[in-house]
Amino acid sequence: MSETLLFKTDLIEVGVFVVNPQDPCFFEAGFVESPIIVFPKNSIWIQHDGSDPFVADPTLVNFYNKGQTYKRYAIHQSGDYCHWFKISDELLSEAVASERHHFNAQNMPCPAPIFLQHLVILKQVMAEQQPDALTLEEQVLMLFHELLSQHKRQDCLFYKKQARHKRLIEAVKETLQSDLSVNLSLQQLSKLHNTSPFHLSRVFKSINGQGINQYRTQQRLRSLTLELQHNQMDLIDLACDYGFSSHSHMSTSFKQSFGITPSDFQKGIIF
């Protein structure tokens, strides 16, 4: 298990956490010392005490309150890999309009612009040159503001759906995450989960806020950002590895989501 504090001021903290399934501490996650927001970089089952488990993946942002206890269940051998952000109690209290410094949800869908925004912050934090504290403080505070504003606009509908439907959707997410290169059809997915294609399609969009294909595409694109940041693999090979029909299909989808091509992202132009 490895947790590293990447950047800290009196107002904000940014860190990275990694634990593999073979680690004795993997299953029992302990408790969270301070309220944080977490951006998963791979997929893993998370279960907060007293709640149903959910698939934490790069399409979500997870919220953890102080003292929160939870368990992990592996989907991949890569285990749990995520980046976390924290702001001071005073700022959090103001942001959530509560004196309890408390998030009222476990997670929420992470829009593509916010996902890209957090990558920009991480790029600055991990650069060799000492980052400017004021710049990063403003960016992290804006990140919190955007997330909490999005959450309020959604009126928490994402968390109030029927429990049995939510369990179905989380199981489908795990299936999709097990191999991003595989293109399962709606018929195949519905058979795997003992439901009808119509019911699965309708319920998935109702609960998740987007269709199955949209969700799978976002999973692929956000996992792809890690590959593009950390290696120089050929884009045609990456398109195949991540289940896109062609390099053109991958590039078009990437630009539609993030406003930049994969090749420019790989070169670090956005940063």
TrEMBL record:
The keyword tRNA processing does not apply. This is AraC family transcriptional regulator. Pfam families: HTH_18. Residues 166-268 form the HTH araC/xylS-type domain. The keyword Transcription applies. GO terms for molecular function: DNA-binding transcription factor activity; sequence-specific DNA binding. Signal peptide: none annotated. SMART domains: HTH_ARAC. It comes from Marinicella litoralis. SUPFAM superfamilies: Homeodomain-like (SSF46689). Transmembrane segments: none annotated. Keywords: DNA-binding, Transcription, Transcription regulation. PANTHER family: HTH-TYPE TRANSCRIPTIONAL ACTIVATOR RHAS-RELATED.
